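Final report, results section. Input specification for complex C-07:
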Amino acid sequence: MKKTDVIIIGAGPVGLFAVHQLGIKGLNAVVIDNLDKVGGQCIELYPDKPIYDIPAVPECTGEELTTRLLEQIKPFKTEILLSERVEELREEKTNWVVKTNNKKEFIAPNVMIAGGVGSFEPRKISLKEAEKLEGKSVFYSVRNKEQFKNKKISIFGGGDSALDWALELSKFSKITLVHRREEFRGAQHTLSEIKKLEKEGKVSIKTPCQIVSLDNERDLKSITIKFDDGKTEKIPTDVMLGFFGLIMKLGPIAEWGLNMNKKTIEVNPENFETNKKGIFAAGDICSYPGKLKLILSGFHEVALASVECFKRARPNEKYRFEFTTSSKTIKDRLGKK
Amino acid sequence: MPKITYKDTQGISKTIEVENGLSVMEGAIQNEIPGIDADCGGSMACATCHVYVDDKWFDKIPKAEDAEVDMIDMAFEPKKNSRLSCQIMVSDELDGLEVTTPEKQT
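Structure output:
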């Protein structure tokens, strides 16, 4: 079990900035996120869309914001655990122990929940048979593309994941790409490559249509899709890949006995502490009178919360408010002269 | 005030008066209409306020922007008449609007 000062749940912009605010106060942290990359909603939902309301940054994309935050917290050499989901929280005297799905454990006097709207999980199709076939012939992500060699694959979705995998897997498999509308929102150059493959007969594109049924005995044999005009078509299929985007689920956090308001956690707006001492919530996941779900609000929230974290992590030291511009201690921590 | 009718897939409907300028999503949340989650709070960053707009109304409401249509791809069982209710603004012209909430949002 690893000991630290603050366990941060969520590697979105607010979780990352928390590392900074804690770091300049001399506190160590570890960050845990369910996604396989940092950035949270900024990376998952709008990596290339502009944000206009970060103070002093007139315009930047979700990806740029994430890159800059990573740069800003680099001096603190904080461990960031990705593809790891926080499962359990338990109290141990004045500390909290957090356990992940991979059985990693951390202990700290403080836990900072910066979990946004919860963890991202792929949206699954709601057909009953899909559940039975999941992991065998129905997939929502590609872990090992070898298993999809020389198969008849039907790919669903209109975003980059659907297009990228259609292109990649078409190198060694027969691909049918199915989307509910004519327009694909994924990168247009990928789409034009796929259209080229369609002409060569390597990929077939079916739009606008949706899945009606999976036809299987033990294994998947075919799928039936329905076009907007009511026509149906049976497509021989060994493997179905669904990329219907991500949904956000609060998950185990909802079971931790924190005061909740719908899907958000109630906090004291003086220090962003929840009803449990040493557990804080900041960013989209917290609620208090007047709360705005803005990145800049999250930044403010972690700044205030970090002061309370300091008091709990260093009970014998006095907290001194300092400016980064003039404090020698902070400059040392940032590795600046 | 315009009246908006929210139906669910079971056919249970509730008609409420929603103030002009609010979104159909806000009207639902303020009146505790089940079936609309609105996780992101109306910023078009999720698809959990997804509704099906009654056919006779679909063409009368302002068309969805690209970003909304993209987001609807991620909704639960989107159809041709799918919209995000946070993007439909209530006005006198929409008096009588009927929307159906999907079986579930997530």
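Chain B has a mean pLDDT of 93. The interface with chain A takes residues 37, 39-41, 43, 45-48, 66, 69-70, 73-74, 76-78, 80, 103, 106 of chain B (CB under 8 Å). This concludes the modelling results for the funded period.
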